[in-house]
Amino acid sequence: MADQLSNEADREDGANEFKEETALRRIDVGSPVEIIRRGFYHFKTTEFDKFPEYFEELAKGQKPQFLVFACSDSRVCPSRVLDFKPGQAFMARNIANLVPAFNKVRYSGVGAIIEYAVTALGVEVILVIGHRRCGGIKELMDLPADGATSNDFIHDWIKIGLPAKAKVEAELPDPKDEEKYARCEREAVNLSLVNLLTYPYVQDRVAKGTLKLMGGHYDFVNGKFDLWGIDLDIKPLLHI
Predict the structure, then answer these.
(1) In angstroms, rounded to a whole number, what is the distance separating the alpha carbons of residues 100 and 198?
(2) 73 is in an annotated binding site
(3) Could you give the number of structural domains in the chain?
(4) Which segments cross the bilayer (predicted)?
(5) What is the CATH number of the domain that holds 224?
(6) Residue 152: which domain range?
(7) Region 171-181: what's the mean pLDDT?
């Protein structure tokens, strides 16, 4: 009997896994309105209605621990991949998960996100996530040497990553080396982490130890996630 129950449980688990797997495969089936309706219904019945105290607390205000920069790629879903709960992470997504250096004239949208997350929300960690087979990074690595562009916004944006491209090309001089794309995915994350330190409120809090910068890389081909920090020796400025 025990073996029979165990076998039945295994079959049931397998059936549930199959249903979940099938649901993921068929995520794009149906009209846009139906997909949205079904998605919200699932969230409301499995989370919102089940944990009213949690969402009542969120209604009072947010206090996220993380600011996350991730790529806009539809295969990269930080909240799902890292199981962030509502209220846990302040999200920013763009092409190739790039963070430009501090500039009051350009990229004010990114600057506003960083300033608000750090000074108003008081996040403890800024996490920049790159990912496998990033189209933006491939476009960056394939940019012509003369800097010519063929679109309105894309190339201008990904040129933020040119220092990462230069570093990779210096270390991997073979232009046919496919490893360049994978290496640049990580170097672009490191560049963004360095660029974050050009924001005075970020540098100040990192120096005080109240803010950490982390890099990550999500490999959705093999189901892997790497996380790293940066070695910094930043001291507070002398105040007289």
Answers:
(1) 9
(2) yes
(3) 1
(4) none
(5) 3.40.1050.10
(6) 62-229
(7) 80
